[in-house]
Amino acid sequence: MTTWKTVFQPTRRGVVLGGAALLATPALLRAQSGPIKFGTLTPLTGVGGTYGPSMRDAAASVFTAVNEAGGLLGREIDLVTEDTQTNPEAAVRAVRKLIDVDNVSAVIGTWASSVTTACAPLCWENGVMLFTVSGADSITQLPHMGFIARTQPNSILQIQVAADFMIREGASGMAWIGPQTPFAQSSIDILAEKAGGAGIGMESLIYEADKSTYRSEVDTILRSNPDFIMLGGYAADSTVVLRDIWQAGYEGKIIGPAYAVNATVLGALPEDVTEGVFTWEGAPALGSAAYSNVQAALGVEDVDPYSAQTYDHANLAVLAAASAGDASGAAIKDALRTISQGDGDTVSDALTGLEALGGGGAVNYSGASGPCDFDAIGDITGTQFLFKQIAGGAAGDYERV
Amino acid sequence: MLDLLPQFLVNGIITGALLAVPAIGLTAIFAVLRFPNFAVASHATIGAFAGYGANVWMGLPAAPSLVFAFFVAGLFGLVSDEIALKPLRKHGALTTAIASIALTIVLENMVRFVFGNALRGYDLPLVRDVRFGDVRVNPQQIENMVLAVVIMAIVFALLKFTRMGKAMRAVADNPGLADLKGIDAVLVGRVVAFAGMGLVGIGGMLFGLGTSIDPLTGFRFILPIFAAAVVGGLGSVPGAVAGAMIVGIGEEMSALVLEPAYKSAVGFFAIVIVLTFRPRGLFGERAY
Fold it and tell me: How far is CA A282 from CA A126, A151, A380, A388, B119, in A?
């Protein structure tokens, strides 16, 4: 008897034939239907939670603008947002979801080096482009086949620049204190090399992150009587270390990365504790058109370096896909350097770039974080650094190198 | 390095005293409700933020702010236990413990939703350390330790001399017998959920007073708090104090022989050693 069930019941032969037909459909055709998927994978929670939301918003502003202007390659861009929780395990689950479920072609904004190191292999194995702001030099030395591009200067360069600064400022005994991170040991090695070259003593101590007090660690590092201490941690632990160093009666100089001694740290600590502390960071392209765009998108005067970078990531992904005529991860990877550097028209946002590319021209994207030129392994070149000194609870420009 | 030994010992005693307060809360909850409540992490955070509100927004000094931390964290402890954990207790300790992990994530994110991720500091005057010979100690640390000791003394007095304290110990020692004597185990359970989490909230704020707070504040202390309670004997209040001292002093003294990066290993090591040679903990599991 024929019932509705037997009519609509899929037969085994039907399923096999249907599946075969689907598999026979060119992958390109399937990929080109529907929206283009990009993912942000920023630290919305955890120690990087101070930056993650604005990093995501900066990238999203680019895709919104492109969608409003008609989309990319005639298709809408669909942005999927995930949270790394500043935790490699959580980040791996999130990037798996972005790759396996959402089918994104590019992942934007991994922040902590441990997170990027954990997520990167999944990206390159699946042909997904990864744009990151992590600094550990080991990241671009991974066998990523071009699928990693980072807009943050690597930690070797960062520490070298800061060590030179400490020596210029008259350090006679240097110390490094920070948590266990992928760049902790390399930071110590570089600082020790620079200190040795200048005939200066140097002590180091790696502590455990997420502790409520570092008094014993501070006692240990102060035994060598340093007069210039470099902090190597993130915001939460640097707050504790700065307080403990001050309470111990230390009167020398201190320098910390701007992401660690940031506005929230200054807000959480009394002014006496942070008075005179130096910070340094890869300087965003202040005054550039792209920087103004991010200021407007986020509605803030001071754009943090990471939001400036994710804004650039989004623009680079859009322009590379447009230049290649294909929004796959491999196409973005191959076309990245054709739109990020070279002799093309200098553009500072995706819309202007899309217009130029549409007219058959070439473009050279110059972004909010800097010129956005990449070397062969995906490291940024030509970055400037900005040193600041804290006075009265606020950071003021000190030196630009 | 041995010249730092007295300093590390002082640091350890101060850390241990602060750890003891939330460890007492955790162990009291285990003694009466018979499950390890992992939601201590979020309740420590809630206490820290409640104390922050009292201190910074209402302008109260540290001690009255601790009372505020106690009541708010206790209230959250009571309500969340009634809603999320109590209905699951009949399915066993493991089920309830897993639910408490889910609960702590929910509560932590509620704090994040309201306060954001930014670090916050209490409005307390910061002063330099005072030196006694080679040993330095901060007046704020001494105040925190005195507060912790006073709170512990109050808890011990309440357990020993009040009717409710005796009822709690009775339910912890033998729930069946306590029931026969007409003790209302449900009421005792509610009081313990309130007071236990209140103590955990005080612990969160005491730690925050020395540093700064964010939604992960409680999560950072969960391992040493558990280690203290397990080492002392889960369910034993004096054991929690002794365990806290062992873990606190052990963590600080470990810097003499271990890289500071392995500090947390001391907590795990203490748990493994104690569970291997004395599975019920140093003091067994008698409540008092």
Answer: 31, 9, 11, 12, 23
CA dist A164 and A55 (Å) reads: 30
Residue found by looking up tokens 């902790």 in the block: A184
Is B236 contained in some domain? no
- Strand blocks (E) in chain B: 130-132, 135-137
Q: Which of B9, B110, B117 to mutate to test the interface with A (most CBs of A within 10 A)?
A: B117
A240 interfaces chain B, CB cutoff of 8 Å: yes
What does the radius of gyration of chain A's CA atoms come to, in whole angstroms? 24
Query: Does residue A91 sit in helix, strand or coil?
Result: helix
Q: Does the beta carbon of A150 lie under 8 angstroms from any beta carbon of chain B?
A: no
- Amino acid in the structure at residue A199: G
Q: Do B126 and A235 touch (CB under 8 A)?
A: no
Strand partners, B135: B132
Residue B97: other Cβ atoms inside 10 A? 17
- Burial degree of A28 (CB within 10 A; 0-12, 13-18, 19+): exposed
Each residue's pLDDT tens digit, A78-103: 999 999 999 999 999 999 999 999 99
What pLDDT does residue B171 have?
87
Judged by CB atoms closer than 8 Å, whether chains meet at A210 and B11 is answered as no
Is B258 contained in some domain? no
Query: pLDDT class for A8, splitting at 50, 70, 90?
Result: very low
Residue among A208, A240, A247 minimizing CB distance to B128: A247
Instruction: Please give the residue range of the domain that contains residue B202.
Output: 20-218
Distance of CA A326 to the CA centre of its chain: 24
Query: Domain total for chain B?
Result: 1
Whether residue A26 is predicted with pLDDT greater than 90 in this model: the reply is no
Measured distance CA(A63)–CA(A78) in Å, rounded: 8
Neighbours of A6 (CB within 10 A): 9
pLDDT tens for each residue of A320-333: 999 999 999 999 99
Comparing CB atoms, the residue among A206, A212, A270 nearest residue B259 is A206
From the CA of B119, how many Å to the nearest CA of chain A? 6
**Would you call B222 an interface residue with chain A, using a CB distance cutoff of 8 Å?**
no
The domains of chain A, with CATH numbers, are: 34-154+286-381 (3.40.50.2300), 155-282+384-400 (3.40.50.2300)
Q: How confident is the prediction for chain A on average, in pLDDT? A: 90
- Both tokens of A168, joined, read 């210029």
CB contact under 8 A, A207 and B7: no
Q: Which residue has the tokens 């407007």?
A: A296
φ, ψ (nearest 5 deg) of residue A132:
-130, 160
pLDDT tens readout for residues A168-204: 999 999 999 999 888 899 899 999 999 999 999 999 9
Angle subtended by helix axes B139-161 and B163-173, to nearest 10: 80
Residue B38 falls within a domain, yes or no?
Answer: yes
Predicted interface score ipTM higher than 0.90? no
**Tokens in use for A300?**
């803030």
Task: Note every long-range contact of A209-212, with CB atoms under 8 Å and residues 24 or more positions apart, other chains counting.
Answer: A209/A47, A209/A179, A209/A180, A209/A233, A209/A234, A209/A237, A210/A236, A210/A237, A210/B216, A210/B219, A210/B220, A211/A237, A211/A240, A211/B220, A211/B263, A212/A240, A212/B207, A212/B210, A212/B211, A212/B220, A212/B221
Residue at B180 is within a domain:
yes
Give the closest residue to B206 by CA, choosing from B224, B218, B189.
B218
Which one of B117, B212, B255 has the shortest CB-CB distance to A49? B117
